[in-house]
Amino acid sequence: MQNIEKNLIAIKQQMETAAIKYHRNPADILLLAVSKKKPVSDIETAYACGQHDFGENYLQEAEQKISALSDLDICWHFIGAIQSNKTRVVAQNFDWAHCIDRFKIARRLSEQRPVSMPALNVCIQVNVEQEASKSGIMLSEVPALAEQIAGLPNLRLRGLMAIPAPADDFELQRKPFARLREMLETLNQKGLNCDTMSMGMTHDMSAAIAEGSTLVRIGTAIFGERP
Ligand SMILES: *Cc1c(COP(=O)(O)O)cnc(C)c1O
């Protein structure tokens, strides 16, 4: 049995410790609870502890959870890859989409965003280590895509997201996050007003905070190992 309440307290404590150590304001870092493959009851438990933001990767599963929990005031983040035939589901159900890597997807999300909803918050997923096998775009492609997305009426470009390859060494973990931070600075010099660095998971959260993360995506440390 996982004790979700204890885990949430512990992870917030770790976030605060890292923030203070690296001269960050703890209030500037949002905890996104990644509930993929976990039951609705786990989300209800975390919500009862004051957790407000939840992340899901699988659309079918997410749709069911969002509908089952529609009475709760949850901010839903889609943190999986989006295929072009699935953009409507994302546009109609989520507050955030973290893994945008093509203009075509962004344009469809903007077109399909219901007028009754506020703009969809989006991040561009960056393949910071330029690994052939990974999703996300190359760093060099980010400024052009960011400019294009910023012109879409029903999206709000919030910033950048990355999932670096796992590394054990803290200093090695920091490197890709630092590259993402430099790119965010570049975008802001162009006047794009980005405020979000979606980076850091259970195993590399503190390194991400050291490099300026404003949103950590934590699953295992809150809900336990996934099946
Ligand atoms: C699953 C997942 C997470 C959470 O990972 P943990 O290691 O369980 O904290 C964060 N971000 C993305 C994109 C994920 O797919």
State which percent range the strand residues make up: 15-25%
Structural class: alpha/beta
Largest sheet: 8 strands, parallel
How many β-strands, per DSSP? Answer: 8
Mean pLDDT: 97
Task: Please describe what this structure looks like.
Helices cover 41% and strands 17% of the residues. It is an alpha/beta fold and 227 residues long. The chain has one domain: TIM Barrel. It has an eight-stranded parallel beta sheet with strand order 7-6-5-4-3-2-1-8. Helix 4 (87-93) packs across helix 5 (103-112). The mean pLDDT is 97. It binds pyridoxal-5'-phosphate.
Question: Secondary-structure blueprint of this entry?
Answer:
Blueprint: H1 4-21, E1 30-34, H2 40-48, E2 53-56, H3 59-68, E3 75-78, H4 87-93, E4 96-100, H5 103-112, E5 120-125, H6 142-150, E6 155-161, H7 170-189, E7 196-198, H8 205-210, E8 215-218, H9 220-223
Parallel strand pairs: 1-2, 1-8, 2-3, 3-4, 4-5, 5-6, 6-7
Summarize the structure.
With 227 residues, the protein is of the alpha/beta class.
